[in-house]
Amino acid sequence: MSMARILGVVILVVGVALLVTGYNASESAVDQISETLVGRYTDETIWYLIAGVAGVVGGALLMLFGRKR
After folding, report:
1. Which of 8, 47, 54, 55 could bond 62 through an S-S bridge, CB–CB 3.0 to 4.6 Å?
2. What residues make up the domain containing 58?
3. What total number of domains does the chain contain?
């Protein structure tokens, strides 16, 4: 397995972890109140979700199309 594919797996796992953290943060009392009053989640939660999606997409692409030996 090439180094690019290993790095892709690591990035994918980190992306999934960030998505789970973002989802859990969106279910917190503070975010629920913020979403009710302001209409959106807190900035920290949004960044967790954005980074998680980017990590999952980037890791999957690197795994699939990483350099082959």
Report:
1. 8
2. 3-65
3. 1
